[in-house]
Design a protein that fits this description.
2 domains; 6-stranded mixed beta sheet; globular; 12 strands; single chain; alpha/beta
């Protein structure tokens, strides 16, 4: 860390700038190692030498000030000269977290279900490398220093054309190429690498374990270091948690600039990622039990529960304003959520329903008063983890049906019983592999049903569901909603719905309009909408 600080001289170092500098440098190191690792088997040796040379020279000539507008003014030669020191001092904070960024992305094959892990890993690596060459060599060619390196622009164009031909001829024979390449457009490589790095830290996944896991899944077990195999027992589940969280956060379009609100501290060998403001989220690392098994924890933990006086009010909000990047997006003057209440969230698309649910997950900064069971909430604690179950609108399940359902269900008998209640057992038993079928092989509505059963099976005081029936057939929706609402696993339920015919199934309606929340009974809601329509 001190070596990084020295590069700034006597200038003030903003936390965000320091993180950006370290992360970018480590990503470049990642590109020069992970990418070469993945694509070496599919290119000729002579071509690989050219790739390594161009990539290496690109890294040392990148102008940090131009890459990050208003960023720290760092001299390229200084960066290169101090690279070893930066790498060593940053390793615990960032380098080990991002050393497998491309390898982490390769695990997305389990979610997309379109390619084998090895093929997808190579494709993503090539995309990242092609992006590096395009951005660094083409757009920033004038920044290259003649004393450092001389690169022929024509040769660079030939290299990029070679990659494009490879994509078309050997990897992509469907339209999925465009879907994959979105990961590495503009600043996405940097953004996603930072995000996977933070999630990797929280799930306590080491680079060695992830690479080994990917190799095992690629039928290349003979290449796996023996010392890493012991770590693989918990990698699969932790990696699934990481990837699920990755797509949850990615859906919020977290930008690089958000890092300016994050400071990284290290104490007693443990890392904590903390926003500067007291009302913000804080991601805590996962703990270990006495037997050394990694305990599951989510990426963002919302609220710190304190023992309080029993009250009918489960959650009480007063004068609450929710922010995204310091911009107020939702106001809640006063709202009480009672124990055992079934609450419908309604409103136009983009009115704030999903934002409100994610507020309870700790995604956003806020001002105002928040109380849970009469206890004021100021920060985040793992105590609140067991009381929330969340059904997001888009979740990428990557295991078998059995693996996903048994995560929150104690026995096979109970799993089958619950599947029958939701009507899922009928379609599962028609599949040749039945409960051992990969979720990626199911239709969208079938995957959604697995997701509903999985999350409704978790015993939690609060259920948050974001349009859980959105892709189910009309004849299935009402039965699924009735089953969710009658589930004994959750005392309080907040569910986003769009069909007015379902509103009477709820105790309370929260109507989202003009960045505010209005609370009604079902009868009051229909009366309000009727008056509103008549006034138009």
């Amino acid at each position: 860390m001190n070596d990084v600080v020295k590069l700034f001289g006597n200038r003030q170092i903003p936390d965000g700038a320091l993180v950006k500098t370290m992360v970018l440098f480590c990503i470049l190191e990642c590109l020069s190692k992970s990418i070469i690792y993945w694509i070496r088997p599919i290119f000729e040796t002579t071509l690989m030498i050219e790739i390594e040379s161009i990539l290496f020279k690109s890294c040392i000539c990148l102008d940090f000030e131009k890459f990050f507008e208003n960023g720290p003014a760092l001299n390229c030669a200084k960066i290169y000269r101090h690279s070893a020191a930066i790498k060593e001092s940053a390793s615990m904070l960032v380098f080990d977290l991002l050393g497998s960024a491309v390898g982490l992305c390769s695990s997305a094959s389990y979610l997309y279900g379109i390619m084998e892990p090895e093929i997808l890993g190579r494709l993503l690596a090539c995309l990242a490398l092609a992006t590096c060459i395009e951005v660094v060599l083409f757009r920033k060619l004038k920044l290259l220093k003649e004393e450092c390196v001389k690169i022929d622009e024509t040769r660079a164009e030939e290299m990029t054309e070679c990659f494009e031909n490879f994509f078309i001829s050997k990897v992509t024979n469907t339209n999925e190429h465009a879907r994959m390449s979105r990961l590495f457009t503009s600043d996405a490589l940097l953004r996603y690498s930072i995000l996977t790095g933070l999630l990797k830290l929280q799930n306590q996944l080491t680079t060695c374990a992830i690479n080994s896991y990917i190799l095992l899944c690629s039928n290349a077990a003979r290449s796996v270091p023996i010392s890493a195999i012991r770590e693989l027992f918990n990698v699969s589940k932790s990696l699934r948690n990481l990837v699920d969280s990755f797509f949850e956060l990615e859906s919020m379009r977290i930008e690089v600039e958000d890092l300016e609100d994050i400071s990284i501290t290290a104490s007693s060998g443990k890392h904590h990622l903390m926003p500067k403001d007291s009302g913000c989220i804080r991601a805590m690392p996962q703990g270990r039990s006495d037997n050394g098994v990694v305990e599951k924890s989510p990426v963002l933990l919302p609220i710190h529960l304190q023992p309080g006086i029993p009250s009918k009010a489960f959650v009480r909000l007063a004068g609450l304003t929710i922010f995204i990047q310091r911009i107020p997006i939702l106001a809640v003057p006063h709202l009480e959520i009672l124990c055992n209440q079934k609450i419908a969230l309604v409103g136009k698309n983009g009115s704030g329903k999903t934002t409100f649910l994610k507020f309870f997950l700790g995604f956003f900064k806020f001002n105002g008063s928040v109380e849970v069971e009469n206890a004021p909430v100021f920060n985040i604690s793992e105590r609140f983890l067991p009381i929330i179950s969340y059904i997001p609108q888009n979740t990428y399940l990557n295991g078998t049906v059995y693996d996903e359902l048994r995560e929150n269900i104690q026995s096979d008998e109970e799993m089958i019983k619950i599947s029958k209640i939701f009507g899922a057992h009928d379609f599962i038993k028609t599949i040749p592999t039945k409960y051992w079928t990969s979720v990626s092989k199911l239709s969208e509505s079938e995957r959604q049903m697995v997701k509903i059963i999985k999350n409704c099976s978790k015993k939690a005081m609060l259920l948050l569901a974001d349009e859980p029936m959105y892709c189910l057939a009309d004849e299935v929706q009402d039965k699924a909603l009735d089953t969710i609402l009658s589930s004994p696993n959750h005392s309080t339920k907040l569910i986003v719905i769009h069909h007015k015919s379902q509103i009477n199934k709820f105790d309370k309606v929260l109507y989202f309009e003009n960045q505010k929340i209005l609370a009604f009974t079902p009868a009051e809601y229909f009366e309000y909408i009727k008056k509103k329509d008549n006034s138009l």
